[in-house]
UniProtKB/TrEMBL annotation:
InterPro entries: Glyco_trans_2-like, Nucleotide-diphossugar_trans
Domain (Glycosyltransferase 2-like) ranges: 33-130
Keyword Transferase tagged: yes
Originating species: Liquorilactobacillus ghanensis DSM 18630
Database matches in SUPFAM superfamilies: Nucleotide-diphospho-sugar transferases
GO molecular function: transferase activity
Pfam families per record: Glycos_transf_2 (PF00535)
Gene3D superfamilies referenced in this protein's UniProt entry, alphabetically: Spore Coat Polysaccharide Biosynthesis Protein SpsA, Chain A (3.90.550.10)
The UniProt record lists the keyword Transferase: yes
Protein's UniProt name: Glycosyl transferase family 2
Annotated keywords: Transferase
Superkingdom assignment: Bacteria
Amino acid sequence: MTDFTRQQKINDFVRQNQRAYTTTLTISLLVSNSIKTIRNCMESLQPLLAQVPSELIIVDTVGPENSDGSLAIAEKYADKVVHFKWCDDFAAARNAGLKEAHGKWFMFLDDDEWFDDVEELVAFFNDKNEQKNFFALAYNQYNYADTAGSSYKINEVTRCSRIWKNLEFIDTVHERLSPIYSPIKYVNSFVHHYGYARNLNNHKSERNEKLLKNLLAQNPQDMHAWAQLIAGFDKHTRAERDKVIYYSRLALENWKTIPVKNNKDNVFAISSLGYMLMCYTLEKNWDEVLKLCKQYIPTIKLRNYDLCILDSYAFTALYQKNSLNNLFPIFDEYLTNFMHIQQEKQALVRQYTPFLAERVSYAILFSMANIIIKLYLDNENWSSIEQLASRLPLNDGIMSSPETTTLLLTACTKTNSSRILQILFDQFSQDNDLSKMNKLAKFINNFKNKLSIADLNNLNQQLTLINSSRNPYLLLQQAEINQETPAGKLAWRKLQKHSLTCQPPFEDLLLIYIDRQLNPNELVAGLNYDELLELVSSISDKYSRKVNQIPDFITKIEKCWKKCPQRELLLMTLRRNYILSNQILLENVKNQLKPYIQNTLSFAHTIYRNELFTDKPSIFLPAEFQFALYLDKALKALDNEKQAAYFALLKAALEIYHPANHLIKRLIANFDLQQKKDIQNQQEFQQLAANIKIKIRALIAGKQQQAALPLLKTLADIIPNDPEVTKLLQQIDK
């Protein structure tokens, strides 16, 4: 079908089925008693209502006399208020608002949720041309499990549709719009929803449970009601999990009695089964998980989405039972089905349900893939890793799974083939998204810092074999690793055409400049402070395992790079790592203390006012700058032989900057040792001097003054203020 034909079909369908409208958007929400959230809800809608031709309809479900004040607040924002007599039917209440709607589009939400940002919604509803391409709109709902907002699940909800002539809400509880047609517009806008957070509004769960049980008493074959009932239980305690298992079995028994099962019956039966599998997984009852999967997979008509849910639980159970050979077909099936529903967003939404959505996710896919890759690694099955890497959606999900990236790169270091790396770079270059490519490159650079020399050399060699004609990161690898070869020189010429800075992942560019004794000012001049910190941190990480090479590297820097704030920050960081290292001899550490202080204070003065650098450093200075000031004063006190001040200042430095704990202890212990040596040397010298004096007296007593005189003069030079030596000299002079 051509785009023109497709658009014509959409236009024809809209003409035949769109309800008449007088404005672009109707927003409708039910107002009950949510005094804590109603104002947030209303205020979050204001930018949308102000910028889009729209109306806001409030459906009052409690009555003014029973309201906690929410209704009065909502009425101030509303264009229309519909008073609805509550009858334990959410769909009926929603339909009361839909009936009064005059919009081309209809959006509904609750009074305990609010939008974070409506910018994309505003753009969509003000773009008539884009609206022509869609029948519904979906956004994300963050469902918080606690009032702190630290735990939540994200559901993609289709809560906005064109208003069709046959559009209505169905289902008494957890109501939904029907029909929802595709194509569907997806936006990144999202709502916060605290309606089912623990310790808040617990009456909602109790209310819904009661309504759902009443529905099931009337129609025990209502599989949607069963799924909603089971989904509502907490599952955090054994008692709650027992309830889930009990009602799930009831649901599946009733499903079996349905003579002609439609698609929705099967979908919601799978949801009930999935929650039972969840509980058995939490109970670590792996045999029951596998038994249920074996029992129901052949009997229920399963979609790709449903198979992913069941396969994810079966995979976990097999892994825990150490049935490793059976993992491979289960994972292969999960990957195949997951990719099928991800390849087209519309296909995904047709299969999506709000139940167990977390089991059909990149997170689950990559956690399973990690196990499979580890098994391949254990067996050195490099070809299987290559095949798996080519099938995984690395470009979409790998950065959310660092372990997968690490495992694939580990495999690269164990084989001489560059095929896995080539797959990585090919996937990340598909959409020419430079930010994604840079993320991969940064990850590789960080991975390199943890490798042995042999593995690092192997990985570097593989990077030079990858097609790099248009990839600056790969050109940089070739230019650095093959500097003196024709290929390396060609890569360097190509690289210079890219006008790069040395912001990560191109920090090695700075190393090449320094190695070639080129001034790197042009590489760092355009970096902002955050970018500069990232660069310095990356260079520092590269030298974290070769700290002993830092002084030589510093010497190279100082030869080619004139003093500037960027240079001082890098030198400060490198010298800090050197002096704080346990691997370096203290005498070598001492040689870098004063240069470290100079670099640190030089950089600090470029960003802080001079008034902060007083005798007692200002608390407004960062801890490391205060530390450098105290350390500077301590070393000066030592030079002036002010021992008490030296110790006091070292103690003050340590209180400010705890990372220097080992360094300060080493300095103090070294000073104590030196003092002990000095005392010992002094005692030995005094004993020697005493022996010489005895010899001199003996010579004088024997009338051998001329023989005693050279010894006496030498002793006088060494201890000139010794009264006994002075007295002996006077005796000889007489």
